Amino acid sequence: MNDETWMRHAIDLAAKAEAIGEVPVGAVLVKDNQLIAEGWNQMISTQDPSAHAEMQAIRAGAKKLNNYRLTDCTLYITLEPCSMCSGLMVHSRIKRVVFGTHDLKTGAAGSVLNIVQQVEFNHQLEVVSGVLAQQCSEQLSAFFRRRRAEIKAARQQTLVGE
């Protein structure tokens, strides 16, 4: 399988997040072209601010491989990772991160910061960005458009009911 195939799987996982009211982000951890673990955003449903898709996939992958070092693994994510997740990737020694769309507000794999390739750290990741970027971006944009419309409708309903 190639990067686009794994990213499609991550997009499917992002849809799982959206189905439970979470921001649609999905992540897939792969080693030797085999699925090791997967995750999707669950911060709201678990009341855990660290329950990002990447965190879920990395935690599950470490348990499955019985090792906190995930060398020779690639992590596919629909959205560029934040600083927390990027730091975890460095510490877990993931080899590659492949993401769909850039996060121009909190991206830490090249957009705002580049934690995953910080030369002062003892490990740097190979970064591939823009894989199925349009689909990943549209999935997020559509979610936030719907969310804004829902909020607007609720405000209007409140005003009508007064």
Describe the structure.
This protein is 45% helix and 19% strand. It is elongated, with a radius of gyration of 17 Å. α1 packs parallel to α5. The protein has a 5-stranded mixed sheet with strand order 2-1-3-4-5. The protein is of the alpha/beta class and 162 residues long. The longest helix is centred in the C-terminal third of the chain and has 29 residues, at 133-161. The chain has 5 helices and 5 strands, in the order αββααβαββα. The mean pLDDT is 95. The chain has helices spanning 3-19, 43-46, 53-65, 83-92, 133-161; strands at residues 26-31, 34-40, 73-79, 96-101, 126-129. α4 links the parallel β3 and β4 (96-101).
What's the count of strands?
5
Structural class: alpha/beta
pLDDT < 50 stretches: none
Count of helical segments? 5
Largest sheet: 5 strands, mixed
Taking all residues together, what is the mean pLDDT?
A: 95
Radius of gyration: 17 Å
Strand order of the largest sheet: 2-1-3-4-5
Alpha carbon gap, first and last residue = 57 Å
Quick one: overall form? elongated
Listing every helix as H and every strand as E from the N terminus to the C terminus, the arrangement reads HEEHHEHEEH
Question: Strand fraction band?
Answer: 15-25%
Q: State the share of residues found in helices, binned by percent.
A: 40-55%
